[in-house]
Specification:
Structural class: alpha+beta
Helix content: 40-55%
Number of strands: 23
Number of domains: 4
CATH architecture of the largest domain: 2-Layer Sandwich
Largest sheet: 5 strands, antiparallel
Shape: elongated
Radius of gyration: 42 Å
CATH superfamily of the largest domain: GAF domain
């Protein structure tokens, strides 16, 4: 048969005659070789440059890694024959090879070695080059090769594809032609298929590995014997450990008190622990934990544990709960020089971590300053937690500020609960009305300020804090200290930087400035264009403003909604605290909100227009449909209004 191949080859090369017995794939390959000018009397491989070989090996490192064990297994099968095992890249460059000792001289003579290119354009028809050219497995024997140098060889090759169907290489078995066997073709094909499947598994593994490492939560996989088998990079960060050290750890010791074996591995149940502390190398780490069993064929083979750091959970809780500062120093409206100096001072100290005490009457904007300081600080991306100390019941004060552990008292949430200081970690806590804090809680607050640590109620260890404290009061805390209702050491600890906000009556230039600011906001909200009359502005300046900016805002709002026309006129002093203050009565701002004001405005407009809805809507500058909807919403009795008219 080999002699017949030789005669057919000679007939074609010398006379250009083709025998019908030559396989179509071989004929097509010979035509391609002729068109490329391949020398049929040659056939020695040409070595690519060292740089090109290194690039190819680097590009196909996963292919080489997967293919090498398969090449070694195949070589064990054929080592008693005259076959070598070859791996190439998609261009036909040999990137790995296991040479049979009996063929070593032949390999050298033909340059059939690592770094040599064996595509059709370089060495003519051969199993490697032809299978890559037609993307099909090929076996080429003896004189089926285009080049005479190869007529003593037989080779079987199959292309290797990635998961997108692209050729990335070729698996080849080459040996002496007298040792040709049909099963070598099958070995080459099955080996290439095996490599493709393992590459798919490797790619899936890499995809999974990349995915779990991209997750911003710690992941640990354990087997049924509680042995750690896989962790992601985030877990290494949480534990602050090297990967090789984690695999030697005892899961039972890490998660002491959590019955993983019984609940998850034996009973196939998921479990969650919302707030727990684990100990790693004498370091305490606060986490939440979710554990899910891995079930295969109805048997638990292990479990996956997902961990979140407590501090990050609390940061997310703070964001979801709206614990953030909305105001900046640009939000402070003033033309007063003392206020400008105060703002400059506050901006300077904002970049520090020192505690700040803001003093001022009610309604002067103490929280506005606190939020502005936070937003100007390096903590602006952290939470801003505001607490009104006067609104917390005395018996709940400690748990509200410092949190509690599970079971510390009747009604305690299972797993415990962080206090406001923990929720503020990485940010700022604003203690408004600090003078109202109970005397018995003050020593613990002082300890938190001194140590930057907090112990929950029922807790046995201290938790680290990174919190800036800003407090505010409308009391004279030094007087409270002298009366014994406020600790002197706590006062000095809170009063590192003191900001005293002057009342509105002592900065009268700001009155109209602020009033016009509130007016513009109202016009934008209602899509109207109302304005102040000079008389109304004079009226505002004349008041004593015991309620400060808050009182001014309320008066502007009331006057705005009560005004029937384009201009806001004089408003009787009944809405001001001034009358009560002058009579020695306790100050009490009228409890008005937008709905009350809106309903009163509609009733007044209807009354002035004898119950005529169209005219009332026109006076209020709203549509007829809107006023009817509001009449229904506020249950306004039109019949009664018309009867009174």
């Amino acid at each position: 048969m080999l002699e017949i191949y030789k005669k057919r080859w000679k007939l074609y090369m010398e006379k250009g005659e083709l025998s019908e017995e030559i396989r179509p794939e071989i004929v097509e390959s010979w035509h391609r070789c002729e068109a490329m000018g391949v020398d049929h009397l040659g056939g020695r491989g040409s070595l690519v440059s060292k740089e090109e070989l290194l690039r190819s090996i680097s590009k196909r490192k996963e292919l080489i890694k997967v293919a090498r064990p398969i090449m070694e297994n195949v070589f064990e099968m054929v080592k008693n024959t005259s076959y070598s095992v070859i791996l190439t890249d998609e261009k036909g460059v040999i990137i790995d090879i296991i040479i049979n000792k009996d063929l070593e001289e032949n390999h050298v003579r033909l340059n059939f070695m690592k770094g040599s290119k064996w595509d059709e354009g370089s060495v003519g028809t051969n199993a490697i080059g032809t299978c890559l050219a037609i993307d099909k497995p090929m076996q080429v024997n003896g004189a089926e090769h285009f080049c005479e140098y190869h007529h003593k060889w037989t080779c079987s090759a199959a292309p290797i594809h990635n998961n997108r169907g692209e050729i990335i290489g070729c698996f080849d078995l080459s040996g002496r032609v007298e040792d040709v066997q049909t099963h070598t073709y099958g070995i080459a094909v099955s080996s290439a298929n095996c490599i493709e499947k393992q590459l798919m598994v490797l790619e899936s593994f890499e995809f999974l590995n990349t995915t779990i490492n991209a997750i911003n939560e710690g992941i640990m996989a354990i087997d049924h014997d509680l042995k750690i088998i896989k962790v992601n990079k985030k877990l290494l960060d949480i534990f602050n450990m090297e990967e090789e050290n984690i695999y030697r750890m005892d899961v039972n010791k890490i998660f002491e008190g959590i019955d993983i074996e019984n609940i998850v591995l034996n009973n196939k149940q998921k479990m969650s622990v919302s707030d727990t502390t684990i100990s790693i190398d004498n370091k305490r780490i606060e986490i939440s934990l979710d554990i899910s069993p891995i079930i295969v064929n109805d048997q638990v083979s292990g479990a996956v544990m997902v961990m979140k750091e407590g501090k990050h959970i609390r940061q997310q809780v703070s964001k979801l709960a709206g614990f953030k500062a909305n105001y900046t120093f640009d939000s402070i409206i003033t033309v007063d020089e003392r206020m400008k100096d105060l703002i400059n001072t506050a901006m300077k100290i904002a970049k520090t971590n020192c505690t700040v005490l803001i003093e001022g009457e009610s309604g002067t904007g103490k929280e506005l300053y606190a939020q502005a300081i936070h937003n100007e600080s390096l903590r602006k991306k952290g939470p801003f937690i505001a607490i009104n100390c006067s609104a917390i019941p005395k018996e709940l004060f400690e748990s509200e500020l410092f949190g509690y552990e599970s079971g510390s008292f009747t009604g305690a949430v299972k797993g415990g609960r962080p206090g406001k200081f923990e929720l503020a970690n990485g940010g700022t806590i604003f203690l408004d009305e600090i003078g109202e804090i109970p005397l018995e809680v003050q020593p613990k607050l002082l300890r938190v300020l001194d140590n930057n640590k907090v112990v929950r109620i029922g807790g046995t260890y201290e938790r680290d804090l990174d919190v800036r404290i800003i407090s505010a009061t409308n009391r004279n805390l030094l007087e409270e200290v002298s009366k014994g209702s406020f600790r002197q050491d706590l006062y000095f600890r809170l009063n590192v930087i003191n900001l005293k906000i002057p009342p509105l009556r002592k900065r009268r230039k700001d009155i109209i400035q602020l009033a016009r600011y509130f007016l513009n906001n109202l016009n934008e909200e209602t899509n109207m264009r109302k304005g102040f009359t000079p008389e109304f502005e004079e009226y505002l300046i004349s008041l004593k403003w015991y309620g400060n900016v808050r009182e001014l805002k309320n008066i502007v709002q009331r006057a705005y909604y009560m005004a029937d026309k384009e201009y806001i006129h004089y408003l009787p002093p009944i809405v001001s605290m001034e009358k009560n203050k002058d009579n020695g009565e306790s100050a009490n701002i009228e409890n008005l909100n937008f709905k009350n004001i809106e309903r009163e405005s509609i009733v007044r407009a209807l009354t002035l227009n004898g119950g005529n809805v169209s005219k009332a809507a026109e006076d209020l500058n709203i549509s007829k449909a809107t006023i009817y909807r509001k009449i229904k919403t506020y249950s306004i009795d039109l019949t009664k209004i018309r009867r009174l008219a």
